[in-house]
Design brief:
Helix content: under 10%
Number of helices: 2
CATH class of the largest domain: Mainly Beta
CATH topology of the largest domain: Elongation Factor Tu (Ef-tu), domain 3
Strand content: over 45%
CATH superfamily of the largest domain: RimM
Number of strands: 10
Number of domains: 2
Shape: elongated
CATH architecture of the largest domain: Beta Barrel
Radius of gyration: 18 Å
Distance between the termini: 23 Å
Order of helices and strands: EEEEEHEHEEEE
């Protein structure tokens, strides 16, 4: 999921560390943002552990390798110290997210939205947005409570 929102928080997840790299405490991270250029303006991140614990960390350096970002956190200069962050998610405060043009939304902003057909018939509400390859799928709850799954083809405002 791109630009994932941290559960119950005002954070936007931008990356998740998958492994260490090299000997100087670098982390290879999966990009969870549609805006990788945002790392150019970031000097600190919020590291969120798998248990939800948070820690502010300074971003010393970053670069892109293939479809991932390599993060170098200040003060974590060995494989051993950096390995503590494997499986952590890295976030920015929601108020620092990239602003989208009118009519465009982050996936997490669609969750809970009421859905109806173009003729005004109630369909239900969006409970989850999933990215599967190049397609976007939605999971929802039909008006009346039954689960429904369908491909989101077009959203209009």
């Amino acid at each position: 999921m791109k630009n994932a929102r941290a559960e119950g928080d005002d954070l936007v997840i931008v990356a998740r560390a998958v492994k260490t790299r090299g000997l100087k405490g670098e982390l290879v991270a999966e990009l969870l943002t549609d805006f990788p250029e945002r790392f150019d303006g970031i000097s600190s991140l919020i590291a969120v552990s798998p248990r939800g614990e948070r820690q502010n960390v300074e971003l010393e350096n970053h670069w892109f390798h293939q479809d991932r970002v390599v993060l170098k956190l200040a003060g974590y200069d060995t494989i051993e110290t950096a390995s503590a962050f494997v499986d952590y998610q890295f976030a920015v405060p929601e108020n620092e997210r990239v602003e989208l043009d009118d009519g465009y939304f982050y996936d997490w902003q669609l969750e809970g939205c009421f859905v109806e057909t173009t003729s005004g018939n109630a369909v239900g509400s969006v409970s989850e947005v999933m990215r599967l390859g190049g397609d976007v799928d939605s999971k929802g709850r039909r008006h009346g409570g039954n689960r429904r799954r369908g491909r989101v083809v077009h959203l209009c405002g």
